[in-house]
Recover the amino acids of this structure.
């Protein structure tokens, strides 16, 4: 296969904060692979032009250049646009069912490679004989968050609850706080505005407001001040996503972000090929009871993390490592 020539990016189209993570990956891949962005394709999202369903219409933008494109979902309104031999889709969130296999094959039948971020989903698709050139290419963390054995972060809080929480771990934390008066934690409140804008407000357990945490810098600054973080893949314990994950429990980048922030991780997760791939057991056994949580939290509050273990681990999961993996993948097709 010919070399990758462009990264097809939504950075001039999408303004949602969760896209910033994708843009960090794209920035590092562009640097590591020495390839530019293809970002001037707003016409492709025009509400009239997007209705055109001519096969390979996206080649008007790629001009025949092999391009990588991160897709937030395995489905979506624009799937037909990216079903072309010039685009390699890297699918982030994907929760397929057996009933959808035929439509999945149609959606990606022209793509030279289909990159699947979840090992669990990749295994499911292979086991069900999906007729596509599938490759597992895992999510990563940008090299801008690189840590070393001697990296040190000053810790102000015992625990930070970043983003959506697992109900079991959250209830264990509240119970722990009731019996440990010196325990300090930070939690999030979402404030929605009439114009559609929303703020992610964070507060300490004693009622102090830390203000809005809406940027990636603010997000990491807060994590780096915490000794511990709670983590569970989506779709566990009726967390609000179990109705859309179809039984899949994919490891998300937040796990890597906790590691890069020097946080102990208190985790709850199933045994699957995703949790095996990211070696969650190396950092925390799956917490199945309050007693186990309390023992783990007591330990984490009184011990420093092993930064050599953390830094060595992340060497396998930086985006620059994924760039090398992608280069190897391309030589095999």
């Amino acid at each position: 296969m010919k070399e990758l020539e462009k990264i097809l990016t939504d950075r001039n189209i999408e303004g949602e904060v969760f896209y910033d993570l994708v843009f960090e990956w794209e920035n590092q891949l562009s640097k590591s692979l020495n390839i530019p962005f293809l970002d001037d394709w707003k016409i492709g999202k025009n509400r009239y032009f997007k209705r055109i369903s001519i096969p390979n219409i996206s080649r008007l933008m790629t001009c025949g250049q092999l391009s990588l494109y991160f897709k937030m979902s395995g489905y979506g309104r624009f799937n037909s646009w990216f079903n072309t031999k010039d685009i390699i889709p890297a699918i982030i969130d994907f929760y397929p069912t057996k009933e959808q296999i035929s439509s999945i094959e149609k959606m990606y039948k022209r793509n030279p490679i289909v990159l699947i971020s979840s090992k669990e989903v990749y295994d499911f698709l292979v086991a069900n004989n999906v007729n596509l050139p599938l490759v597992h290419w895992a999510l990563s963390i940008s090299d801008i968050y690189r840590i070393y054995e001697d990296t040190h972060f000053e810790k102000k809080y015992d625990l930070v609850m970043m983003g959506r929480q697992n109900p079991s771990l959250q209830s264990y934390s509240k119970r722990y706080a009731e019996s440990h008066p010196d325990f300090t934690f930070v939690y999030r409140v979402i404030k929605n505005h009439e114009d559609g804008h929303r703020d992610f407000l964070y507060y300490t357990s004693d009622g102090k407001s830390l203000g809005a945490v809406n940027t990636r810098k603010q997000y990491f600054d807060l994590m780096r001040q915490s000794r511990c973080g709670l983590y569970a893949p989506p779709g566990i314990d009726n967390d609000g996503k179990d109705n859309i994950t179809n039984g899949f429990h994919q490891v998300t980048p937040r796990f890597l972000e906790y590691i890069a922030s020097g946080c102990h991780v208190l985790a709850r997760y199933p045994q699957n090929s995703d949790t095996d791939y990211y070696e969650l057991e190396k950092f925390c056994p799956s917490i199945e009871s309050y007693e186990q949580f309390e023992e783990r939290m007591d330990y984490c509050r009184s011990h420093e993390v092993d930064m050599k273990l953390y830094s060595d681990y992340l060497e396998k999961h930086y985006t620059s490592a994924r760039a090398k993996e992608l280069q190897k993948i391309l030589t095999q097709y």
Q: What stands out?
A: Residues 147-314 form a domain with the Rossmann fold fold (CATH 3.40.50). The longest helix spans residues 19-33.
